[in-house]
Amino acid sequence: METLGIPPAPRPQRPPGGGLPGPGPESGPTIEHGPSDRARAREINAAVTTTRRSATVPCYFRQTMSDPSAPPALTELTRDSAPRQTDTRGRVAVADIAVGLFQAQGYEATSTAQIAAAAGVSRSTFFRQFRSKDDVIFADHDELLEQIDEFFDASHPDPWLAVCDAATLVFERFRERLEIVRVRDLVVRQTSVLRDRETVMVSRYEKTFSAYLRRSLPSVDPVVAIQFAAAVTATHNFELRRMIRAIDSSRVLDSAGLAAQLQTVRNRFAPGGEAARGTSDLLVAVFPASALPADVARVIESRLRSTAV
């Protein structure tokens, strides 16, 4: 095969002893290398290769530098020693910080970026925890509803009383966080969109209570279950607002006082027979054979009324 007039350079010949090719006749005589020299050469070549690989820019950095439109996740990787946020705050902790900001500068004037910065979380984490700014302020309600679902999953001998106990649980949680709950109440009363959200949240409690009763007591009229759930929720909310806005704390009910109020609601709605206690009482009546049917009916009716719950 013909070339372009430039004779090919002669390939260096390996010495007969098996050493490495020498520098060529113009640079001096060929140097013979033994096995130890060859091993040393391989170590040097490996070290140089490793150094070159470690100096290579990773593929995602090359993509970011060559393509400014690369995804943000790749762009963040190019920041050397950039401060990173821990994103460890829970939803309720972030919500409490947001309530403080809403009180200080107003709900409309507070942005999600400001909430995330004050809470020490990234905006992406914020939107993983909350769908919007409207959802932040009622984060503790979401957790309480989850606790109620877990409570209802357990077995309860009296479903009516279980609903009352669930409402008392919610009341006690708010008592434990009374300071921030009072601040939130002020913010909600000043913001119409939050008042609407609060109404929706109240309806979630009612639906949870009535759904549990209808599952546990299928023989009970659904209307009665709905009425009972509404009455329990209304009683709870009335006493809760009285506690939040009370000037004289001595007149505020504690959890035991609310439980007593809800017991009264239970007694008004729950029937005194099988639906309420799970078992029916047995009434045995003995009358002489000469007794008139009307007298028998009157005595039995009087006895049942006196023992009704």
Task: Using the alpha-carbon principal axes, give the shape.
Answer: elongated
Output the helix-strand order: HHHHHHHHHHHHHH
The level 1 CATH classification of one domain is Mainly Alpha
Radius of gyration: 40 Å
Report the CATH architecture of one domain: Orthogonal Bundle
Determine the structural class based on helices, strands and strand pairing: mainly alpha
Proportion of beta-strand residues: under 5%
Mean pLDDT: 75
Oligomer: single chain
Task: Kindly report how far apart the N and C termini lie.
Answer: 114 Å
The biggest beta sheet reads: none
Which regions have little confidence, pLDDT < 50, spanning 5+ residues?
22-31, 51-88, 273-279
Number of helices: 14
Write down how many β-strands occur, each being a DSSP E stretch of 2 or more residues: 0
Measured as a percent range, the helix fraction is 55-70%
CATH topology annotation of one domain:
Tetracycline Repressor, domain 2
